[in-house]
Amino acid sequence: MAITLSQLCANTEKKYSMKLIAGHAGMGNTVRWVHIIEDSEVPDFLHGNELIFTTGIGHVGNEWLKSFTVSLKNKGAIGLVVNIGPYISSVPSQAIVFCEQNGFPLFTIPWKTRIIDISYEFCRRIIANEKRESTIADAFRGIIRNPATADDYSSMLNRAGFYDDSSYTVISLSILRRSVSITESVVRTTDMSLWRMLKKSGNHSSLFMKEGDLVAVRQNCSEEEIVMFCELLRPIAEQSADTEIYIGVSESVRGFAEISQAYEQSYAAMLTGRIKGKERVFYRDIGLMKLIFGVKDKMILSSFAEENLGVLHRYDSEKNTDYCSILRKYLELNGSVLEAAAETGVHRNTINYKIRAIREILGRELDDHTKSMLMLAYLIEDVLDIYDNLNGGNKQ
Fold first, then answer.
1. What are residue 7's DSSP bridge partners?
2. Which domains, ranges and CATH numbers included, belong to the chain?
3. Going by fewer Cβ within 10 Å, which terminus of the chain is more open, N or C?
4. Burial annotation 130-169 (CB, 10 A radius, 16+ → b, else e)
5. What is the chain's Cα-based Rg?
6. How far apart are CA 141 and CA 209, in angstroms?
7. Is 246 helix (H, G, I), strand (E, B) or coil?
């Protein structure tokens, strides 16, 4: 996971005499980078989640620190390190109170501590952590691509705190705007927020992009933690207007080699959510869709749909009728003519007439077996439509 302020500052009190004097509650925040800022007008180049150092050079007195701290907090910084010395003799109590009340970590270092040394070490730690995260993500991508390679990544994942005898849940997430994926662009602008979400919902995790979707691999995670993580994700997606968010959750699997299967489950659940307009879908709940997504040869799926619904589609196209949509509604309502009439806004006699016509066109009675075959064909068409959309460039 992204490095937290607490992890970044480990052992710094002993090595650099760096002391936390307020804002203890914010030590779990993730750190993007460190900056040295001396201007009381906080610059706009901050991206958020930076740790700021200041010596106070160019300022008179210490009272400016309160407003400086407030500005840093408002700009998205996650902490301030004050270099006590000739320019700042002490930190004013107002600044300390503000930081404590707002969970904004406030540190001091003595003048003898060279900022260049501590900032260099912090930057090195951040870069090393990013490299570690990237290596972990590459390992999980490799396992998903080819489960047979799981043993090749085992030692590295063990060092990172992931173990082969643990259980794993995979979550796939897609954010759409007007049916076009914007997941990657949203993730780029909210990556630190996403890591905070993972931190809040507990346990070892890896977060990475795969084929335009956001994928989270979570170790030893309870269903309650999964639900919490999914709930925390919603505000991230809703930062952009006119967006839809779809989250698919796999079943829990054990061992590295099974993570590939869990990814396929989460992906199938996410696409099922897109088809049915449901924000969060667990693989265990997708029913017949398990069979459809389990068939990798799309020609088999296409052939089945054509055998069962092709003649009705052609009739609708030639005669400008709506029999395909009427039949689907009828099937979804368990063959209730009254409910189908109410849903479509037409008289029940009209529904009866259309169902009789559909039987003639299909050349089949609508018994239970035929109804099941037809409903399966409709679901297959839904899946094939989603695949066509993805292949058509709507996925980043």
1. none
2. 5-113 (3.40.1390.20), 129-286 (3.30.70.270), 298-394 (1.10.10.2840)
3. C
4. eeebeebbebbbebbeebebbeebbeebeebebbbebbbb
5. 28
6. 9
7. strand
Using CA atoms, how far residue 292 sits from 77, 183, 282, 289, 302, in Å, is: 48, 25, 16, 5, 11
* Short-list 159, 52, 36, 163, CA closest to 104: 52
Structure tokens at 201: 């919902």
Please tell me which of 175-179, 182-186, 311-315, 339-343 the model is most confident about, judged by mean pLDDT: 311-315
Cβ neighbours for 298, distance < 8 A, ≥ 6 positions apart: 384, 387
Which phi and psi (to 5°) does residue 242 adopt? 55, 40
Q: How many CB atoms lie within 10 A of CB 213?
A: 25
Looking at residues 146-159, what average pLDDT do you find? 95
Phi, psi (degrees; rounded to nearest 5) at 249: -120, 125
The CA distance from 365 to 205, in Å, is 52
Query: CA-to-CA distance for 150 and 61, rounded, in angstroms?
Result: 60
Q: Which residues of 273-295 are buried (b: 16+ CB within 10 A; e: fewer)?
A: bbbeebebbbbeebeebeebbee
Task: Decide if 149 contacts 225 (C-beta within 8 A).
Answer: no
Query: For 36-61, how does the pLDDT look when each residue is reduced to its tens digit (9 = 90+)?
Result: 998 877 767 788 889 999 998 988 88
CA gap 193, 199 in Å, rounded = 10
SS3 214: strand
